[in-house]
Amino acid sequence: MRKRLVYRADDVGYTLAFDLGAFKAIDEGIVTSADVMFDSPHTEEALQWLKERPWISIGWHRHLWESPVLPASEVPHMVDAEGRFKWRHLHAELMDEVPYEEAYKEFETEMARCYAILGRYPDTASLRPQKNELERAFADICQKCQINVNVTNGSKIASSTASYFSQKRDSKFDHLNFQSWIVHPDNGKGDGSKESEYDLKFFSSYDTTANIMGIQWDNEEEIIMTGGHPGYLDDHILAESRCTIHRVRELQGAISPKVKQWIIENHVELVNQRDVLFGTNEYQDHLKAVNSPLWIGNM
Amino acid sequence: MKLLVTSDDYGFTYAVTDGVLHCARNGILTETGLFSNMNSAPYAAKRMIEEFPNICLGIDINLVAGSPVSNPKMVPSMVQESGEFKSSGMHRKLDETMPDHIPYEEAYLEIMNQTKRFIELTGKKPEYFNGHSYSTPTTRKAMVDVAKELDIPMLSDILKQYHLLSGAQTAVWNVKPFSLEAQLACDPIGMFKEGKLTYLDEAYQNDGIAHIHVHAGFIDQEVFRYSTYTVVRTKDLELITAPEMIQWVKDHNVELISVRDLLEK
Fold it and tell me: For site-directed labelling of A20, which of A294, B10, B74, B98 has its Cα 20 to 30 A away?
């Protein structure tokens, strides 16, 4: 049975430390797709690095926790006194105060930054409920830049973050059976509750290698996307993010020799998101070019 | 005043290595000690030698993490069945019934081999010798003997000579037991901003020499595998790269020095 797998690295561009780990996961691991933050301290360096790796598909990992790309004076409703996005992860309701034009301008500038370095726009993004002007502006920019939105049809297994990605899939991808497989730490409740799965108490038992190797395909039309935040840890991430030390475990899984062996033994076909959406063969062509043991032709 | 800034455990893991290199490029780091036995040591040595010849590069003799440079069969008291070093915790447990349980010959062999590996990787002798985490009277004697034989100064001797604090004496935020929660909660750069690193102010008032001795690094899973000193490494890194610290050094006309400078005097 054909078993296609996208491994997505989230938060690329976050910090130098995170990216050094993420780059390791891309070059030495199983990452096929990078979800990039466009408002972070290391965004530009990450895009420069990714430009040299065209076999990696790019997602827009909308963040809005750092600082706008535009000067703070041009987006006064989005920033605090320090010029940083004022809601961070605690006060998402403050996004309701942002006028459409401000949000549109900021998103447009983030995409201009992407295009200027990468030479193209991201391949994918996830829309959230269109409950305010900011979300409407985000959807419009995605449309303007021809970014494919909401490409998967939900998660196969329960997770408190599943609702975050539970927007209805774009109908043009209805012919695809493209599923997310969440490998975040299990909070043990199985009820989609909001308790942080990245709590320290779930760290010692967090086995991303086993989680990846637990992925199952129901049929050969099904394509599974899994992923995480594979990267190194620094003080900025410790201070800013909800997902902190768990990142090192997600990196461990993404470069694990056991996972690679599982891929070989189970004839898992690593693909990027463009391969899924448009039927290309970019990631496998790359593996073939470098004569990787993970190339399906070498298995 | 003069300030010596040491970060231990260089080459411990790839993430720690990249963190120390970040400190060399963007911080006030002046010297670091290489773990020559670890998998990432060749990468660490090459990058430091090529990119930061201004950083004084010593050796941190590591007898408790990773694998020995020597054939494990030649250092049986120091290794587990897997051939990897026993951890410091395992040694301390053994100490309860067999104090000073590592034979001199084994310690001498491994310390000499780690030093030879250092020379192979860097093309030069270590600029200083330093221990790491666990030692016994016998391993300390072996280290001193190897250092003497190869004419390499002991960091501890230099610090004593100049009446400088070392290790935990400077890292006052490191209060044992140092749980993960405590490491996440500690705030060295906050302590610095609040003037709680009093040894810095004393050195400034007396136009003397101060020493900051940390374990800076980014963190990967390998750090958790080999050490209980984990996320605090990112806090140590922040202390010696923070804009506030760099500004303080500039504002106080602090001369950054290393053991290399002290030995040249």
Answer: A294
CB B146 within 8 A of CB B115: yes
Q: If DSSP states are collapsed to H, E and C, what string results for chain A?
A: CCEEEEEEEEEECCCHHHHHHHHHHHHCCCCCEEEECCCCCCHHHHHHHHHCCCCCEEEECCCCCCCCCCCHHHCCCCECCCCCECCCCCCHHHHHHCCHHHHHHHHHHHHHHHHHHHCCCCCEECCCCCCCHHHHHHHHHHHHCCCEECCCCCECCCCCCHHHHCCCCCHHHCCCEEEECCCCCCCCCCCCCCCCCCCHHHCCCCCHHHHHHCCCCCCCCEEEEEEECCCCECHHHHHHCCCCCHHHHHHHHHCCHHHHHHHHHCCEEECCHHHHHHCCCHHHHHHHHCCCCCCHHHC
Please answer whether residues B61 and B38 qualify as being in contact, where contact means their C-beta atoms are separated by less than 8 angstroms: no
Nearest to B221 among A234, A235, A251 (CB): A251
A14, A23, A205, A232, best to mutate vs chain B, most B CBs in 10 Å: A232
Enumerate residues 6+ apart whose C-beta is below 8 A from B157.
Answer: none
pLDDT tens for chain B, 265 residues: list them: 999 999 999 999 999 999 999 999 999 999 999 999 999 999 999 999 999 999 999 999 999 999 999 999 999 999 999 999 999 999 999 999 999 999 999 999 999 999 999 999 999 999 999 999 899 999 999 999 999 999 999 999 999 999 999 888 889 998 777 899 999 999 999 999 999 999 999 999 999 999 999 999 999 999 999 999 999 999 999 999 999 999 999 999 999 999 999 998 6
Residues of B within 8 A of A20 (CB-CB) are 14-15, 18, 218
Is B234 in Cβ contact with A20 (below 8 Å)?
no
Q: Is A21 on the interface with B (CB under 8 A)?
A: yes
CB–CB of A233 and B234 under 8 A? yes
Residues B102, B164, B41, A46, CA torsion sign: positive
The complex's ipTM works out to 0.90
Cβ <8 Å between B15 and A235: no
- CA dist A29 and A252 (Å) reads 9
Nearest CB to A232 within list B219, B230, B238: B219
Single pTM value for the model: 0.92
Residue A299 contacts B where some CB pair is shorter than 8 Å: no
Residue of A nearest to B242 (CA): A235
Cα separations in angstroms, B176 against B91, B188, B196, B228? 18, 15, 18, 11
Q: Is B236 on the interface with A (CB under 8 A)?
A: no
Residues forming beta bridges with residue A57, ordered by sequence position: A33
What is the crossing angle of helices A43-51 and A100-118, to 10°?
Answer: 40
